[in-house]
From TrEMBL:
Organism name: Acetobacter cerevisiae
NCBIfam families: sigma70-ECF
This protein's name: RNA polymerase subunit sigma-70
Domain PhyR sigma2: 10-63
GO BP term, pick one: DNA-templated transcription initiation
Pfam family, one: Sigma70_r4_2
Tagged with keyword Transcription: yes
RNA polymerase sigma factor 70 region 4 type domain ranges (all copies): 101-150
Cytoplasm among keywords: no
GO-annotated molecular function: DNA binding; sigma factor activity
SUPFAM superfamilies for this protein: Sigma2 domain of RNA polymerase sigma factors, Sigma3 and sigma4 domains of RNA polymerase sigma factors
InterPro entries named in the record: PhyR_sigma2, RNA_pol_sigma-70-like, RNA_pol_sigma-70_dom, RNA_pol_sigma70_r4_t2, RNA_pol_sigma_r2, RNA_pol_sigma_r3/r4-like, WH-like_DNA-bd_sf
Protein family membership: Belongs to the sigma-70 factor family. ECF subfamily.
Amino acid sequence: MSEGDDIRLQSAIPALRRYARVLTRDPHQADDLVQDCLERALTRLHQVRGRPDLRPWLFTIAHRLNVSHWRRLRRLLPAMEGSHPEPMQEPGQIPHLEWKEVARAFERLSDDHRQVLLLVGVEGFEYATVAEILGVPVGTVMSRLSRGRTVLHSLVNHEERPMLRRVK
């Protein structure tokens, strides 16, 4: 691996971590996904020598690894029937310091909507690049983005807020 490859890979890690958190909704699983993705990327870095931005390629790897993970789990579920796994974290113990209203609403979105909103809105990818990462048509990306924005807007504007009493 050349020094340029090393720098390109390192500069993509923060974005990859954000995407992994969106995919997994769990910081520990996200770290594992990033680790697996980087391991796979290092063995295949020769495939993307000419690409200046490795994020789309890394996000595609992360997306496919996550899909494979859930498929494996789905196959194991019948074997685990009747057993109740321990929760990964205690309810209410969210490991973030502060949640704003939009962040709470974002978490309530479907996985499809969250992925597209992150890839287009945060990472700034074009629709065609997002379609390639997710393995869906461009029209599906545009539809998910539109619906995701609509749902997010609705959640932020109509979320129940505690009523405050007037103190005299």
